[in-house]
Write a structure and sequence with these properties.
heterodimer; A: mainly alpha; 5 helices; about 0% strand; B: alpha/beta; Rossmann fold; six-stranded parallel beta sheet; two-stranded antiparallel ribbon; 17 helices; 8 strands; about 60% helix
């Protein structure tokens, strides 16, 4: 029990952000027309590629003198993260572009 | 950028980094907000992408490890090289993919995000400076499940992986969840030496990967959109866990934001199908459902030439496209038909059910690609009141979304699902491959109704024949 309380206290800022962000996410999405569900899903998907920052931090501070496991795994993390981010945003744009063209 | 500011022990670079994360987080939120309105959606996507780019650049330039060491030039070059390769690959795949294969792509991209999270967590676990063991393990477990689950979803949508409905999988899944929980608790409690823990973490990784597979495996192909949306929120949460490790607010906010938005989107999709999330996951749907004994009418077929005449001399035609249209890639011919009829003075509208296609909103994307004007697409609730004064409804490759049993048969598994009321129109033409049942595996009484004519064949062939007949009138 004590360790849970301690965890909460030590991470109170992050926990605040998490709780408020959950509400924010619900609010932002709750009134979306179904037409936009697919682009929205893929746009949100691209944002979840923010893990790429973690990969950059890892590789950024990894030893580069020798090839080591951390470096290699970190490189793959960046590669996958980039695929997620670039692929996600590009494909979302492509879908939305078609909607817009038709409106004019 | 290395000058100290005041006596806080931080440099201006540190401040710029944190400010850029704040800005990136704002961009994500504004981006997703704009994305949820048709007029601003494209701009919203650019905002979110801009936030991501900003966070990436400032991290590379200003991030320092715990000893205050910035990122060395060699490392920067490696990072940039990998990002360049990833961006080219990602952009090419996203540009080349066919619009019908969109759900597969989204699923695949989600898998890559999950994999990245799992890798980061795996490395961070062996980092002695990392004290957040719980979130690291959660990131590992959730990221791995998102990865393997999304890959299976991808395989299913692509037709490479079939469904397995073995009942024991349910128990196997519960058992694996239990093992995962016990393992996580055991590692956190420090129940083993660090070296043993490192091995246990690999065991945890393996079980999570297997769980992702067995979690998605029994879920029917038509439910994949819901699953992908759910796994998408998993990926977000996994990224947020990694953000926790680095005390990185942009990652925490971005990840949790996607997590909660993805969850709400998942629930919206479930609601559109009138099913609970639990029902989708446990999969009590499909098969079995014996509907009330209703007098079946006789199936009446219609020839291409009769259909052509019927359509050409109508005043108002509503087209209801479904999954079968997408599978047959018939959206372009479908637009040809609509244009041809309009030239003859017929009013043509498209009625889109919220879950038509392989993903909610997917049908809109497919029709937009085929250059069907946006203003001709009508959502279910807007078109339903017009049904009684519609001369002909053309149902193409749709089944459950026009099944009247959803309205009046409480014993039907789809009872309560909102449908397009095609049966209220004066005439209905149903284009279908054969008399096979829809995903819900239940009889559709629309096909036997007095005002319904069946037009058998693949959607594309049938539409092509129809277009040719109308042209020759």
């Amino acid at each position: 029990m004590e360790s849970i309380l301690e965890f909460f206290y030590n991470n109170k800022e992050a926990i605040f952000i998490i709780v408020l962000t959950i509400f924010l996410g619900f609010e932002v999405i709750s009134n979306v027309p179904s037409v936009l569900h697919t682009p929205l899903m893929s746009g949100a998907n691209a944002i979840s590629g923010v893990i790429i920052i973690g990969g950059i931090i890892l590789v950024g501070h990894a030893e580069t003198d020798t090839i080591n496991l951390n470096l290699v795994l970190g490189i793959f993390a960046i590669l996958f993260g980039t695929l997620n981010v670039t692929g996600g945003f590009v494909v979302t744009d492509r879908m939305l572009e078609m909607f817009r063209k038709k409106k004019n | 950028m290395n000058a100290l500011i005041g006596d806080l022990g931080v440099t201006s670079g540190d401040v710029i980094l944190e400010l850029s994360y704040l800005l990136a987080a704002v961009f994500f939120v504004v981006g997703l907000k704009l994305l949820s309105h048709p007029d601003t959606a494209r701009k919203g996507n650019l905002w979110a992408a801009g936030g991501m780019l900003l966070a990436i650049i400032t991290t590379i330039l200003f991030h320092k490890d715990s000893s205050g060491q910035g990122i060395k030039l060699v490392n920067i070059l490696i990072i940039l090289a990998v990002i360049a390769i990833g961006s080219v690959l990602g952009a090419v795949v996203a540009r080349k993919v066919k619009m019908t294969a969109m759900p597969q792509l989204v699923s695949f991209l989600n898998a890559t995000g999950g994999a990245a999270s799992a890798l980061v967590a795996l490395i961070e676990f062996s980092n002695p400076a990392n004290k957040s063991t719980l979130v690291t393990l959660l990131g590992l477990v959730i990221g791995s499940i998102a990865f393997s689950g999304s890959m299976i979803a991808y395989g299913k949508l692509d037709g490479k992986v079939g469904d397995i409905f073995a009942g024991f999988i349910k128990y196997l899944n519960l058992f694996m969840l239990l093992v995962v929980t016990v393992l996580v608790a055991y590692i956190i409690a420090g129940g083993a030496a660090f070296e043993t823990q490192k091995i246990l973490v690999y065991v945890l990784l393996a079980i999570s990967l297997v769980y992702g597979v067995t979690f998605v495996m029994p879920i029917g192909g038509a439910d994949m959109p819901v699953v992908i949306s759910l796994l998408n929120s998993f990926t977000g949460i996994a990224a947020a866990m990694a953000g926790f490790i680095y005390r990185n607010q942009a990652m925490i906010l971005g990840g949790i934001f996607v997590g909660s938005a993805g969850t709400i989107l998942t629930l919206l999709m479930c609601r559109a199908m009138n099913r609970s999330l639990l029902n989708v996951i446990i999969g009590s749907f499909g098969g079995g459902g014996t509907a009330i004994d209703r007098k079946k009418g006789v199936i009446k077929e219609i020839s291409a030439s009769d259909a052509a005449v019927l359509l050409s001399y109508s005043q108002k035609v509503v087209i209801v496209p479904g999954y079968g249209l997408a599978v047959a890639q018939a959206q372009h011919v479908c637009n040809d038909l609509a244009k041809l009829l309009e030239e003859k003075g017929v009013e043509v509208k498209f009625a889109i059910h919220p879950v038509a296609g392989r993903m909610p909103g997917h049908m809109n994307v497919l029709l937009a690609e085929a250059e069907v004007p946006y203003e001709k697409l009508f959502e279910m609730d807007d078109i339903n009141p017009e049904m009684p004064n519609t001369d002909v409804v053309v149902v193409i490759g749709a089944n459950d979304v026009v099944n009247p049993a959803a309205l009046d048969d409480p014993s039907s598994p789809i009872y309560g699902m909102p449908i397009i009321r095609a049966h209220e129109a004066k005439n209905v033409i149903v284009m279908k491959r054969g008399m096979g049942k829809g995903y819900a595996a239940i009889e559709n009484y629309l096909f036997f109704a007095d005002n319904t004519r069946m037009f058998f064949g693949s959607a594309k062939d049938s539409l092509q024949k129809l277009v040719a007949e109308i042209k020759s009138l």
